Amino acid sequence: MTVRRSSRHPRTCPGFLAFILLILSVQLVKTSSEHDPYKILGVGRSASQTEIKRAYKNLAKEWHPDKNKDPKAEEMFIKVSKSYEILSNEERRSNFDRYGQMDENQPFGQSQHQGFRGFHNSFYFDESFFHFPRSRDFADSKYLLHHAQFNSDVLPDSHKRPYLIKVTSEWCFACIHIEPVWKETVQELEPLGVGIGIVDLGYERRLANQLGAHRAPSIIGLVNGRVTFFHQAVVREHLRQFIENLLPQRLVEKITDDNYLAYLDNWHAENKPSVVLFDQVPVVPLLYKLTAFAFRDYVRFGYVDQGDTHNTRLLRQFNINTYAPTMLLFKEDTEKPVDIIQARGMKRQIMDEFVSNNKFLQVPRLVNQQLFDELCPVKQFHRRRKYCVLLITGEEQAFLPGNKAFLDFASANKKEVLRFAYVYQRQQQPLCLSSEIKNIFRGQCASVVILERRSQAGKVLYRSVSGGWNGSEEDKYRLHEQLELLQKDPTYLSSDTTLPELNNEMAPMFLIQWMNAAYDYILQIYDDLLYSNWREMMPILSLIFSALFILFGTVIIQAFRKPKPKEQPQAEEDASSRASTSSRPPKKDFVEVTELTDITYTSNLVKLRPGHINVVLVLTNASKTALLRKFAKEVFSFSGTQTLHFSFLNADKHRHWMPSLLRSATDVMQSEGHSDEDEESSDYTGHVLALNGYKKYFCLFRPVFTGDDPNDSSSETSFSDSRRKSRSRSRSIHHKLDRLGLWMERLMEGTLPRLRVPAWPALEETINNSSTES
């Protein structure tokens, strides 16, 4: 019986196996057709890129989860997106056509094994067959990083908050294994302010190489542009500790009864407000550390453990409620906080608003250009004027009463349009030694200047408070009166100048910067050696060996090099004199200016496009060089405007054109009472015209009177006197355009009076008239 049954079994087994193979083949055909990008997009294998793109757009609109409520819409949308990513890339499309491969991370075999490889991929790795969870669902799409986005957004933002980045890929079983822990960690850390990112190793190979990630899964921390790999077990507590260890040390200072006075009094040296958090836990919360990291350039942070017995006096002095976390913010007054916040569930958004509203002291010291730009921004609109009241003082004991009086005045005159600040004359010498500011600051007497910034290049309008500043009641009354006049009349600031960039008083020394960079490199080398990541170590090792090779090569060359004979002192003096005479200042304030001639006159004025204005400078052969240089300097900040053109007119060649133009503007000539004869004999050197060729009107700038008479020439003057007068006349001509910048601003605002003409006089006519009269 047993032998017979065993003899029948081989006869029934082939039929059963055939049935199983038939089912598997049907399933394989089904799964292969479901993952065929051509069938998903509905295009043929010979379809062009235009046809593929058109099909993708139509299907993406149809299956987008926000528009299609079908439960399968999300899954279909992902398939459509993956199919387009494969077929839109010629290399991936070629791989799929030859090998049937959809993921470039899978290893390629030889072409003759295509049938076995297709069976292997479809049977063992098809997620629809085994119903494996996907390694990247639709909710993770908002965290996906691209190469351009990473360099433009994430890298700069890493200086304000840390980033936790996961490197993954399709068909990664280890990635599926850590997915639950990753989601829990994201839900915990993202509300605290940690940035989250996901890099697909298959589609973002360039970004993965930049990060140094060559395998999936990998978890990376990014702080201050520095990449650090996570090497521990993927547990939520380990990831949280990993982020905390990435933050710089000493972000938050522990405060007790013994050191809180020194901590609060240090606002003057640090030039920052102070924030103190009171809480029951003995360690500093991660939320507070992340907030301190984001605002570390503006505010100092301290922490008080309410459960510590050494803090009872501190709790009693500020009347702290021990049942909820409390934050106090101090500025110049260390005995009374300027703001308090208390909440049981302290959120990141609440803490950010609390700190960002108190980033600066009431009267901060300008220690760098960035602080100056934030306190006194450049004027952009008429309603957004910001006036900076600047005290120029010193660090000596004699200046302390005046500085204290200035702080009291600023505290009593808080207004939205006013910003109070001070600078130390010794620390900001480039600013205080500029020609205009130097005249204001007088030795041992502090001075107050009211500024309004007009451009990023440093141009400001200013007015100094007369009498200096010593903090008396008379000085306060005088400053208050001038501020009231300024708010009624914005043109009260009558002087203008260009300020140099401020020194960075808080910048670390070069040696400290070099030591910090060396410390980071040593840590990175140690980390790579510890975990044997030789591929990531190669750039660093190559840099080290290259530096050593250059160093030893230089030493060897110097050892075999013959010393040069010493040169004669006379030759050295000649070389130094040649170097000093050959040095020239670099070009700046370059503006393209065109001369108005009979060839360019029609295109630059008569047929000028609507909305365009030509700014024309009138000059002579003698004043051409000085006036053009000053003209370029004054209009340089407006040269970027597309509707402005700049030209000059030579009055020696066309001396009758200006009188002809002014005669045609009859209203102006009647109001000023000039006759034709006066117009012919007038000197128009330094006049500037803003000509609107389409609407036939112009605005006139009259130069500053210098007190020199160009027609005053005496034959009895000696040669040295004539040279001295010519130099003084060139300097006076240079000052004719001193107020041109203010006139240009009024031109852009549209507040200048307009003189209309019936037609523009032709240059040929003026030339012919001049030749006929002569």
Automatic annotation (TrEMBL):
Classification via CDD domains: DnaJ, TRX_DnaJ
Pfam families in alphabetical order: DnaJ, Thioredoxin
Record keywords: Autophagy, Glycoprotein, Membrane, Signal, Transmembrane, Transmembrane helix
Gene field: DNAJC16
Transmembrane segments: 540-560
Subcellular location: Endoplasmic reticulum membrane
Function: Plays an important role in regulating the size of autophagosomes during the formation process.
Species this protein is from: Sparus aurata
Full protein name: DnaJ homolog subfamily C member 16
Region (Disordered): 563-587
Signal peptide (residue range): 1-33
GO process annotations (BP): autophagy
Keyword Transmembrane found: yes
Membrane topology: Single-pass type IV membrane protein
Residue span, J domain: 36-100
GO cellular component: endoplasmic reticulum membrane
Gene3D superfamilies: DnaJ domain, Glutaredoxin
SMART domains to which the protein is assigned, alphabetical: DnaJ (SM00271)
